[in-house]
Amino acid sequence: MIWTILLLVQGMLLLFVLVSKRSRSEKEPPLDKGVIPWLGHALEFGRDAAKFLNRMKVKHGDIFTVRVAGRYVTVLLDPSSYDAVIEDSVSLDFTRYAQVLMDRIFSLRIPHHNPAVEKALTKQYVPILITHSFLCGQPKNSCTCTLIRLTATRNQMFFSTCHSTTTYSPSLSLSLRAGYLTLFGGELNNNRTDPTNVYEEYRKFDNLLTKMARTTLKPEEKRTAQSVRGRLWELLAPAGLGEGSGSSPWLRDYRHLLQEEGVDEETQRRALLLQLWATQGNVGPAAFWLLGFLLTNPEAMRAVRREFSSISEQDSAQCPLLDRLQHTPVFDSALEETLRLSAAPFITREVVQEKTLQMANGHKYQLRRGDRVCLFPFISPQMDPEIHQEPQRFKYERFLNQDGSVKNDFFKGGRRLKYYTMPWGAGTNGCVGKRFAISSIRQFVYLVLSHLELELCDSEAQMPEVNTSRFGFGMLQPEGDLAIRYKPRHSH
Ligand code: HEM
Question: In this structure, is residue 412 part of a structural domain?
């Protein structure tokens, strides 16, 4: 027994020495292992990835490799070189790291799953989801009815008579419950699952998400995560099971696909939670940031209101913004600007075969098999002062030309950029739900602005700080909130 233990310890020590012995070859990017063995920079990375990566950028430039919890991650921060990563699905793999996260966060493994078929399914349904989307999800009901119905459910005072409230939770709650109704269940009584229950459990789950992804949950949090996940699996279990479930045809086909792949019931439920997160996780926070930026920038608010009211005057439809031909350039620019400031995903790929990465400036770097590559567009292009003047400021017209047309010429180092903001990723694995997400956010803001008079409780209030532990996980979340007063615009 003692010999086995000694051998194991010896083996681990050897492995440790081998792993930490890695040194840079001259063809590779600068290597920064950090001072802590094995962990490397993991703690700083997890606390505030934007701050850490900015520090590394100052130290090493636009490309470098860091050690993070035993893994080596090459970070690329030059948007002119992003295509070398995004367009290469031979040497760089999207699925492997996605599967690691699926397992850690959703406890989900689907052995014979075909992600390409799943993606094609979502792509095919996006136009249909848009017309059945969000607060207009029920063609038989008007937007107003759906809004009132949703907000009348318990614990929701957001749209009652004159009141004051914070902004984040109501935005998230309304957005998630409407999205849930649209995709998972057509009516409040979807198999007895009240969307409010789904929302409440989802918030608890989402609060632990980054720790689940990093496997840093404390024992108590682990127990909470397991039980919240279990409750969500139960709540979502009936969704997509035949027409009677009231779910969208997309979800029914998705469930059917899983069944055809031989995925058991239990795993199907876990996959449904993944879909809830993928379709809803970013939309609510995006709606919050946009509403917040409009509230704290009265000129932007006036411009968006003006654009919306000219559309509703021309259009007698119940949900005028559903028409894809409606142009809302001011709103689009305000949303683009919001996402520039608040979308901060890592675009991560696993190196599955050695690759020579050629940068736009001609430099070439070797990437090692087994490492990961990570783009962080939040630092550049999105917050890069060379590309966007005063990058910290919200300027609703940043993506508009003087004549009101869409502005898409942005430069860095004299070179016109293909990627000047990148909230949706890009290339082979770019977001397939982009149009559905934009349509949902637009509908949300339209409905809130057209039904409510709302103002800040403190007219000097600023946007809350961001929760720095969420860098890398899609839309950022606020650390504080914005207090508002509101009353109905018209009596319904
Ligand atoms: C504000 C809302 C959203 C944001 C900011 C967002 C952002 C992103 C980003 C950055 C990626 C690329 C990840 C990568 O390359 O590593 C992505 C992928 C994806 N998104 Fe979204 N997304 C949003 C909403 C949605 C919605 C509503 C859906 C579904 C209806 C969706 C479905 C997907 C899917 C399926 C992929 C993976 C594509 C693939 O497998 O190649 N997203 N999203």
Answer: no
How far, in Å, is the centroid of ligand 1 from the Cα of 433? 6
Shared domain check, 163 and 37 = no
- Top mean-pLDDT range of 103-117, 155-169, 222-236: 222-236
Q: Is the pLDDT of residue 148 over 80?
A: no
**Residue 235 resides in a domain:** yes
Lowest mean pLDDT among 65-74, 155-164, 229-238, 331-340: 155-164
Number of domains composing the chain: 2
Mutational pocket test of ligand 1: of 282, 431, 443, 445, the residue with most ligand atoms within 8 Å of the beta carbon: 431
pLDDT, tens only, 424-443:
999 989 999 999 999 999 98
List the domain range (segments joined by +) for residue 153: 115-343+423-488
CATH number, position 30: 3.30.43.20
Please indicate, yes or no, whether residues 231 and 355 belong to a single structural domain of this protein.
Answer: no
Whole-model pTM: value is 0.92
Can you read off the two tokens belonging to residue 286? Answer: 């995006």
Determine which residue's CA is closest to atom 14 belonging to ligand 1.
347
Q: Are residues 103 and 151 in the same domain?
A: no
Position 446 in a domain: yes
Per-residue pLDDT, 113: 82
Do 142 and 248 reside in the same domain of the chain?
yes
Kindly state whether residue 171 falls inside one of the protein's structural domains. yes
Q: Closest ligand 1 atom, CA of 347? A: 16
In terms of domains, do 188 and 280 share one?
Answer: yes
Residue with CA at minimum distance from ligand 1 atom 18: 431
CATH of the domain at 266: 1.10.630.10
Using the mean position of ligand 1's atoms as its centre, give its distance from the Cα of residue 291 in Å: 21
* Strand order from edge to edge, sheet including 31-32: 31-32, 63-68, 71-76, 372-375, 347-351, 92-93
CA gap 335, 328 in Å, rounded:
10
Closest CA to 343 of 383, 388, 389, 303: 383
- Band the pLDDT of 139: cuts 50, 70, 90: very low
Q: Are residues 283 and 432 both part of a single domain?
A: yes
Q: Which residues are documented as binding site for substrate? A: 104, 282, 372
Contact 201, 173 (CB under 8 A): no
pLDDT band at 219 (very low <50, low <70, confident <90, very high): very high
User: What is the per-residue pLDDT for 396?
Assistant: 98
